[in-house]
Amino acid sequence: MSYSRLFFLGAALSLCGCQSNPKGVARQPHFLDLSGTDTTVRAGTNFFSYANGNWVKHTEIPPSKTGWGSFYIVYDHSLYDLRSILDSCASLKNPAKGSPAQQIGDLYASAMDSVAIEKAGIMPLQSDLDRVAGITNPAGVLDEVTYEYAHGGGTLFSFYGSPDDKNSGWQMAHFDQGGLGLPNRDYYFKTDSNSRAIREAYQNYIAKLFVLSGSDSATADRKASTILALETNLAKASKNEVELRDPQANYHKLTLPALDKTTPGINWQDLTSRLTLHVDTILVGQPEFYHALASLLRSTPVATWKDYLQFHLISDMAPYLSSLFVNAHFDFYSRLLSGQKAQEIRWKRMTGLVDGSLGDALGRLYVERYFPPAARRRMIDLVNNLQATYKERIAGLDWMSDSTKHKAIDKLEAFTKKIGYPDKWKDYSSIDITRTNLIRNLENIGLWNFQYEMNKIGKPVDRSEWGMTPPTVNAYYNPQFNEIVFPAGILQPPFFFQDADDAVNYGAIGAVIGHEMTHGFDDQGSQYDKDGNLKNWWTPEDRKKFEQKANLVVAQYDSSVVLDSIHINGKLTEGENIADVGGLAIAYAAFRKTPEGKSGEKINGLTPDQRFFLSFAQIWRIKRTDKNLLLGINTDPHSPEMYRVDNPVSNLVAFYNAFGVKPGDREYRPDSTRVHIW
Ligand SMILES: [Zn+2]
């Protein structure tokens, strides 16, 4: 499982961008954009619409986007900043080989060389496809998958290095379920017409890639049908998103001989040594998946495996091949699944690629140019204020015993705080990057990343590492490091303002900070102790009370409906919702301690509390395509934005008082259904 608990769905952001210069949109001089509110709607009827309705009415999602609004706009703005760095690096005469400027400049130049990329077609992958064509037996299938992992790719299962959940200071090899081309296992089995249409389009996409690679259409269709059937079998053995959220149920420390016994045909000693691992114990998230995989390796013809491997090789690299491959990939994954109407302009896609590939090289130049040191200092103050308030809140909880309170406060005080950018940067200097071959560059980067990750396994964990690049407009809590992390990218309006009044900052970045802190105490994070170990620190009675309260959160979101009749999955979104509800409550309590929070003095006709809640609603000022909303309901642990506003505020009396919300209003909850956990 991925370790971090994000603030916002990162994957959606990689699709961001817009051709008009958005700088004027992102930098809002008045802190609160009151022109976006809709005062024809009462706050008590629909607070999201009250705060954002006019903006929603007058905003069109750009065709090259799956959504538009706060995060999207800030990220798009950052892309312009990143491009100016990349342009200047790419135009350097004779930069030192292996320097950050040479590497990001040349990677970007190779990615922008669409003439060479068009001319090459499928050729950059031909030797990989030939290697797969030479496989003769099931052992050869696994040899190929390990070869791909060792070169920065990999399919069929999920392999990565990460701390041991029960010994968080030690880095381990993890093997999880994987190998699917659709967003998750449920997409293979749902019988509604939309899901059936997605499967049909997926099969057509598979066939299309084979045709583009030289197959005749009858052969391509046959391959597509057997690949979909094979993936359906992998999906049958896979857990769903909710089952994957249980850290205890997905933790299995196993020796290689023990695994050999349950997965006949898979030689784990051989498999791990091909991955350059020298360990006798690994962590397997879902042993039943590997049991089924072993059986499928025995029963499925080798020819089908070869087709499967070739398809995934092409599909994974399609965004970086010639335009026919780019377009086929876009048509399925972006247009059909996410509702994006047009391809993003090339420089934005490739700027995102450089950020994702050589993040520390680009990131260090980005923070030098665009991240003011004063922002870091202001942020540290805010985080410390929130942490102090959190401590008081825990001490004052009426439902928790003193012994659990002590442990919770110990955990809170042990948080590591990372703000802006890492203390040390990765040294990529040994990676060979040239201006002439994008795919080769990506392979070299993949190889370096693999060796970097393998070198950490079986050793003490380096807790200084970051899981996001500095320009990322997001934040996370990592339970294994017990840390909260805020990249420079999110320390910009409308999340963070250097000069705004406290109501605006506490309602925005304050709620983000509170959200990440609360992840340490959500249904998953609360199972990890202050040292990042998956180890119970609760009394049984307190745990039971916590779960009862968490179930109220699940019920609140289960009853929330989008797109006329589709309910949020309260269990899938439980952790994020607890973080949203708790984060807002903590941010509000911390705000009340500031001079503005105590004063009651109006600014622009708004009370401090009104400004606080409007600022909170403004960070969620986002519009998505219907398809992107639906994809999120099925896959994203975060709730849709309108409910990330309406549900948290509806649990706070302060919100009722600020906007005159009364019994009978849609946003009004009777006391018995309000949730106060933290
Ligand atoms: Zn989160």
Structure in words:
The chain has 678 residues and is an alpha+beta fold. The protein folds into two domains: 329 residues, Collagenase (Catalytic Domain) (3-Layer(aba) Sandwich), CATH 3.40.390.10; 184 residues, Neutral endopeptidase , domain2 (Neutral endopeptidase, domain 2), CATH 1.10.1380.10. Helix content is 52%, strand content 7%. It contains 28 helices and twelve strands. The protein is globular, with a radius of gyration of 25 Å. The chain binds zinc ion. The site of zinc ion has 7 residues, from β1, α21 and α23. Zinc ion binds next to β1, α21 and α23.
Helices and strands in order:
Layout: E1 5-6, H1 10-13, H2 23-26, H3 47-58, E2 67-69, H4 70-90, H5 100-112, H6 114-120, H7 126-133, H8 138-150, E3 158-164, E4 167-176, H9 193-212, H10 217-236, E5 253-255, H11 256-262, H12 268-274, E6 281-284, H13 287-299, H14 302-317, H15 323-338, H16 346-357, H17 359-370, H18 373-395, H19 402-413, E7 416-420, H20 438-454, E8 476-478, E9 483-487, H21 502-519, H22 540-558, E10 561-562, E11 566-567, H23 574-591, H24 595-599, H25 608-619, E12 622-624, H26 626-635, H27 641-649, H28 653-659
Parallel strand pairs: 4-6, 7-9
Antiparallel strand pairs: 1-8, 2-12, 3-4, 5-6, 8-9, 10-11
Helix pairs in contact: 4-5, 4-16, 4-17, 5-16, 7-14, 8-14, 9-10, 9-15, 10-14, 16-17, 18-19, 18-21, 18-23, 21-23, 21-25, 22-23, 23-27
Bound molecules: zinc ion.
